[in-house]
Amino acid sequence: MTVDEAGRALADPTAYADDRRLHEALALLRREDPVHRVEREGYNPFWAVTRHADIMEVERAHTRFLNAPRPVLVTAELDAMNAERAAQGIALRTLIHMDDPDHRVIRAIGADWFRPKAMRALEPRVRELAKRYVDRMAELGGACDFVQDVAVHFPLYVILSLLGLPESDFDRMLKLTQEMFGGDDTELRRGTSPEERLAVLMDFFAYFQELTAARRAHPTDDLASAIANARVDGEPLNDLDIASYYVIIATAGHDTTSSTISGGLRALVEHPDQLDRLRADPSLMPPAVDEMIRWVTPVKEFMRTAVEDCEVGGRRIRAGEALLLSYPSGNRDEEVFEDPFRFDVGRDPNRHLAFGFGVHYCLGAALARIEVRAFFEELLPRLESIELGGEPEGIATTFVGGLKHLPVRYTLKG
């Protein structure tokens, strides 16, 4: 593999479904050209930033490197369509699309719902749902597709419970989320055209318009009502910003966690010494959770755009050029992590970048940790044996994803 081929892999959704290929490419880039210019047919050029220190530098300098106008990697055709819709004022504008001061103000609307006090209040519900889904594994009789039968449902129920949505709508939210993040995956996507991808967002928008109207007419004690009735400078949010807020909470709030839980279970199955170590010493669960998050790194990248000429990792970046922050690469950086390709449930320190850094640090990081911990604290005491029941399959994506199938065979107590 050449350096140019390694760079182009970052704009190839199938590379993210093949851990060996992806990490071979990323290791080559870190070693040979850690800030590498990528030119791939169908995509606008970008700089791939692959070392932990350089990613941190860009994340810290949030006024020099902006999320807008290109917050995630998409095709040149979608970039153009998104720019046109933004100019018309009809593009979804989530927290990942925003920069300060808008980002700071809009983020604050939901921030209290993810603070420690709120997380403590939510934890009993999280543990109740964790037990429900470990019980579900028992009901399945010792074999299941862990992703589809368990992992995608548990975090979805948690986040939609926080929003206050009825369980009758959960399957609809799951399908829309899989279509949005699986837009490059032949099994999960709705269609292949940019118009079909945008139709998924419009379906979200239509659903949340109805929800907003209901919560404004009859406010309730949930996050959906807090968003619907939020005011900025005395004025309510417009429908597009409200829908955008719902979309980022309802989708990123569960898909990333389900990827961590399924990828974490696979890691424990494939590293039985670490599974035995964790079962023998439950006090290792907090570092084990962060190691699962580092190992899986569900968010593969965010993009930033330079507002002025500058230098990153010894490379000259021109104003207006885009940079891709490769989180899987930063989380395997040999300069930061001792033996980075070893799965170690006791890893300490663990300076992973899976939640980002700085002003854009993941709003739901604490909730994600609670969910992963609650699930494995429920599962491991009941687990007598577990092994793969077939070949795991990853999602083709360049943004958010993990496993889409994880067949396992197991025996559980109770």
Identify the notable features of this structure and list them briefly.
alpha+beta, Cytochrome p450, single chain, 5-stranded mixed β-sheet, 414 residues
Describe this structure in words.
Keywords: Heme, Iron, Metal-binding, Monooxygenase, Oxidoreductase. This is Cytochrome P450. InterPro entries: Cyt_P450 (IPR001128), Cyt_P450_B (IPR002397), Cyt_P450_CS (IPR017972), Cyt_P450_sf (IPR036396). This protein is of the alpha+beta class and 414 residues long. The chain is built from 16 helices and 14 strands. It has helices spanning 3-9, 19-32, 52-60, 76-87, 102-111, 116-139, 146-151, 154-163, 170-181, 194-217, 223-228, 239-270, 272-280, 285-296, 327-330, 365-379, and strands at 35-38, 46-49, 65-66, 143-145, 231-232, 235-236, 301-306, 310-312, 315-317, 322-326, 383-388, 393-394, 403-405, 407-412. Helix 9 (170-181) runs antiparallel to helix 10 (194-217). It is globular. The model has no long low-confidence stretch (mean pLDDT 91).
- Taken together, the total number of domains comes to 1
Unreliable stretches covering 5 or more consecutive residues: none
The number of strands is 14
Q: What percent strand?
A: 5-15%
CATH class value: Mainly Alpha
Structural class assignment: alpha+beta
Helical coverage, percent range = 40-55%
Main beta sheet, described? 5 strands, mixed
The outline comes out as globular
What is the quaternary state of this protein?
single chain
Number of helices: 16
Head-to-tail CA distance between termini: 50 Å
Report Rg.
21 Å
